[in-house]
């Protein structure tokens, strides 16, 4: 059976569990790690954990006219190791990925190697155990690992995003196995991320992002926001990821407390980072980001009139920012209570990139 033809229910024999797992490998249904065989009772129980009928479409991929039903999503959630009460988060993430502006086909097929990053806000984090403290991007937490893994298995098994075939990632990164975490709302000096978008604090949401691998932002020394955020801005403007795309900055509690103690608002932080995560156009040219023949790597092609890679008079006076406005920088808080380590995630981008999409989560 081809990998993209995951059945509505499993017809695998499970008298010998090991053989059933091997049968899933033979069918091409795995991400390289063993999966739970998706037997019909397990898929039914997973489906019952959500709010959708079996044939309801949770994910549409318009470029190839593909759709993923709730039952197929449930089968992949079983294989990933989800519990049924995780399924509302899975379904909401898939619905968010259906937004046309998310450009799922391009994200899945590009050489850029983006992972689907999933950030969760609201009460459901604690209700189902989504982790947002130490090692929030790493292993050890079932809800984080299996929700993120389900999305990857859906891409593989239902949309045929198979490495070397449709998925042409040059290198990829480990987030393509699973990348799901919660925001540490209680530690944030601001309202939770979803509340900043207009959702009620009592609502639960999932935000999806086509993310490049994260960049560690190390600063143990600075106590003032300017010095601290200057380190963030320098990381965000590194040539390796500088583009006109969006950004997600996940601020560690130690850093968040320093920013909060100074009374800086969310918008002040966004404005500071946008103003300082910059290079001059001359530096961009010297850094090899201008290819000539009208192609400025990583930037919107209409951003500058002149694209000659040779530094010209006046290039030192042109500022090249990360993104196009302060709102292109999303801010969340998460991580262990101690440690001056935050993270910056660039969006998948050679150019403007796709936005972050937020979807409300509904439970039975």
Helix and strand topology:
Layout: H1 17-26, H2 40-48, E1 57-61, E2 66-69, H3 70-80, H4 87-97, H5 104-109, E3 115-121, H6 124-128, H7 142-159, E4 180-182, H8 193-196, E5 205-211, E6 215-218, H9 225-236, E7 247-251, H10 253-261, H11 266-276, E8 278-280, H12 281-286, E9 290-292, E10 295-296, E11 319-321, E12 329-333, E13 341-346, E14 357-360
Parallel strand pairs: 3-4, 7-12
Antiparallel strand pairs: 1-2, 3-5, 5-14, 6-13, 7-13, 8-11, 9-10
Helix pairs in contact: 2-3, 3-7, 4-7, 9-11
In short:
The protein is an alpha+beta fold and 364 residues long.
User: What's the number of helices?
Assistant: 12
In N-to-C order, the SSE pattern is: HHEEHHHEHHEHEEHEHHEHEEEEEE
Low-confidence stretches: 1-10
Determine the mean pLDDT.
91
Radius of gyration: 21 Å
Principal-axes geometry comes out as: globular
Specify the helix fraction band: 25-40%
Strand order of the largest sheet: 4-3-5-14
Strand content: 15-25%
Termini separation (Å)? 34 Å
Main sheet: strands, sense, barrel: 4 strands, mixed
**E-strand count:** 14
The chain-level structural class is alpha+beta
Q: Any idea how many domains?
A: 2
Describe this structure in words.
This protein has a four-stranded mixed β-sheet. Strands 6-13-7-12 form a four-stranded mixed β-sheet. Helix 9 crosses helix 11 (266-276). A hairpin with a 4-residue loop joins strand 1 (57-61) and strand 2. The two termini are 34 Å apart. It is α+β, with helices and mostly antiparallel strands and 364 residues long. The protein has twelve helices and 14 strands. The chain has two domains: 1-212 and 354-364, no CATH class; 278-321, no CATH class. The protein has helices at residues 17-26, 40-48, 70-80, 87-97, 104-109, 124-128, 142-159, 193-196, 225-236, 253-261, 266-276, 281-286; strands spanning 57-61, 66-69, 115-121, 180-182, 205-211, 215-218, 247-251, 278-280, 290-292, 295-296, 319-321, 329-333, 341-346, 357-360.
């Amino acid at each position: 059976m081809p990998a993209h033809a995951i059945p509505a229910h499993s017809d695998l024999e499970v008298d010998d569990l090991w053989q059933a797992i091997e049968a899933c490998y033979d069918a091409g249904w795995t991400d390289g790690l063993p999966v739970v065989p998706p037997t019909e009772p397990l898929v039914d129980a997973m489906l019952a954990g959500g709010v959708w009928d079996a044939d309801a479409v949770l994910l549409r991929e318009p470029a190839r006219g593909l759709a993923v039903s709730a039952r197929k999503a449930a089968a992949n959630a079983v294989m990933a190791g989800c519990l049924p009460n995780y399924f509302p988060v899975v379904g909401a993430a898939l619905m968010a990925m259906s937004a046309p502006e998310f450009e799922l086909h391009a994200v899945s097929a590009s050489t850029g190697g983006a992972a689907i990053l999933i950030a969760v806000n609201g009460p459901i984090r604690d209700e189902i155990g989504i982790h947002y403290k130490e090692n929030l991007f790493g292993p050890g937490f079932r809800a984080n690992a299996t929700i993120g893994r389900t999305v990857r298995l859906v891409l593989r098994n239902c949309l045929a995003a198979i490495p070397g075939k449709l998925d042409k990632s040059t290198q990829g990164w480990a987030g393509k196995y699973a990348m799901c975490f919660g925001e540490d709302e209680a530690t944030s000096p601001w309202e939770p991320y979803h509340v900043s978008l207009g959702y009620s604090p009592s609502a639960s949401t999932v935000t999806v992002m086509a993310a490049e691998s994260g960049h560690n932002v190390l600063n143990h020394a600075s106590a003032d926001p300017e010095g601290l955020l200057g380190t963030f801005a320098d990381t965000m403007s590194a040539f390796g990821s500088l583009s006109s795309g969006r950004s997600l900055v996940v601020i560690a509690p130690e850093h968040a407390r320093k920013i909060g103690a100074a009374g800086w608002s969310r918008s002040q932080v966004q404005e500071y980072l946008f103003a300082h995560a910059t290079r001059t156009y001359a530096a961009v040219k010297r850094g090899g980001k201008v290819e000539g023949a009208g192609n400025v790597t990583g930037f919107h092609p209409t951003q500058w009139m002149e694209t000659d890679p040779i530094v010209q008079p006046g290039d030192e006076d042109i500022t090249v920012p990360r993104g196009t406005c302060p709102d292109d920088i999303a801010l969340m808080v998460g991580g262990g209570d101690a440690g001056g380590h935050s993270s910056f995630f660039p969006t998948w981008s050679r150019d403007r990139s796709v936005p972050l999409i937020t979807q409300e989560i509904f439970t039975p």
